[in-house]
Amino acid sequence: MPLAPVNGINLYYEEHGEGFPLIWSHEFAGDYRSWKPQVNFFSRRYRVIAYNARGYPPSDVPECIDDYTQQQSVDDLKGLLDHLGIDCAHVGGLSMGGNVAINFGLTYPRTARSLIVAGTGAGSTDTEAFRKNVSQRAGDMRARGMEAMDDYSSSQTRVQLRRKDPLGYEEFRRGLMEHSPLGSALTFSGVQGRRPTIFALEDRMKALDVPTLIMTGDEDEPCIETSIFMKRCIPKSGLAMIPQSGHAINLEEPDLFNRIVLDFLTAVEQGAWATQGDGDESGNLV
After folding, report:
1. Residue 280 lies in a domain
2. pLDDT for position 285
3. Per-residue pLDDT tens for 180-221?
4. Does residue 281 sit within a domain?
C-alpha cells in the first residue's frame, strides 16, 4: 500500500501513467476513487496522482481538530509532491479539493504549473448558516456515524448525478458511507468550518500568476457566484460552466470535464493560455 510520510502522518496515494505530473485533490464527500474517470483518461499522457486527505483511511486519521486546517491540507499536498520528487505539477481539485488547489497556488505558485479549481466556494456567500450547518453535521457524525450523512448525497446539488448516472451515484454514496466518522467530523469542523471564504482571497488572487481553469455546474448554486468572482480576480483564468449540472461535475459529465481540462492543459503547455487584458490597442487579442 503506497503511503507517504507527510507532516507527521501517512497519506495514501495512487499514481498511474507517465509524463508531466497531474495531481487531483478530492471533495469532502469523495476520496481518491472519485477521480477514477480522470485517472483513466489522463494517465494516457500524464503521470496522474490521486490521494486521500488526512482523515480519510487508508490515510491516517489524527484525533485532534487542530490537525485539520485549510493550510494543513495545502501543506499536506506540498509534502506529498516532495515525497514523490515532484517540483512542479498541474494541480486540480473539486470542492474541498478545489479550495486546496487555489490555496496551493497562492502559497506555492512555483510548484503549480497550472490550477484546475472546480465546484469551489461553498460557504462563502452564506458563511454563518454554512458554519452552523457544518457544526451540526460534525456533531451528528460523532454521535451516529456516517449514517448521519446519508441525506448529504441527495442534496439539491447532488441529485443531478443520481439522475444522469444512477450506478455512479450509488458508488459515490457507498464510498461516502465508508468514510471514517471521526475523520469526516474533524474535517468538517476543522477545515470547512474554519477556512477563509473565497472573497477573503481577493487581493492574493489578483496577484496570482498561475494559469487557472475555474469550473462549475450551472445548478451548483453555492459555487456560481464564487466561480465568477475568481474569474474576475485571477489574471490568467478562464471559466467553464457545465449545463444542467450540480456539484460533482467530474462524475456527472466526465467526458466533457476531461475534454475541457485537456484543452486547458494543452493551451498552458503551448504558451497559448491568455492573460486577461492582453491584446492590442483596440482590445483584440493578439
Report:
1. no
2. 42
3. 999 999 999 999 999 999 999 999 999 999 999 999 999 999
4. no
pTM attached to this predicted model: 0.95
Domain boundaries, position 200: 3-269
Confidence band for 9, pLDDT divided at 50, 70 and 90: very high
Phi-psi region of 14 (alpha: psi -120 to 50; beta: other; left: phi over 0): beta
Confidence category of residue 280, pLDDT binned at 50, 70, 90: very low
Q: What is the CA radius of gyration of the chain?
A: 18
- pLDDT score, position 276: 86
**Whole-angstrom distance, CA of residue 224 vs CA of residue 78:** 28
The order of strands in the sheet holding 21-25 is 3-6, 9-16, 47-51, 21-25, 89-94, 112-118, 212-217, 237-242
Distance between CA atoms of 185 and 271, rounded to whole angstroms?
42
With b meaning 16 or more CB within 10 Å and e meaning fewer, what string describes 1-32? eeebebeebebbbebebeeebbbbbbbbbbbb
Number of domains in the chain: 1
Quick: pLDDT tens for 243-275. Answer: 999 999 999 999 999 999 999 999 999 999 999
The angle formed by the CA atoms of residues 71, 52 and 150, to the nearest 5 degrees, is: 100
Instruction: Measure the CA angle with vertex 204, ends 186 and 273; round to 5°.
Output: 105
What three-state secondary structure class fits 206?
helix
The answer to whether residue 259 is domain-embedded is: yes
Helix or strand run (H / E) with residue 160: helix 159-164
Residues in Cβ contact with 114 at an 8 Å cutoff, skipping those fewer than 6 apart: 90, 91, 210, 211, 212, 213, 264, 265, 268, 273
* Residue 6: all three cell numbers together: 507527510
Can you give the CATH number for the domain in which 31 is found? 3.40.50.1820
Question: Does a structural domain hold residue 109?
Answer: yes
Tell me the average pLDDT of the chain.
Answer: 95
- Taking the C-alpha atoms of residue 214 and residue 196, their distance in angstroms, rounded to an integer, is 18
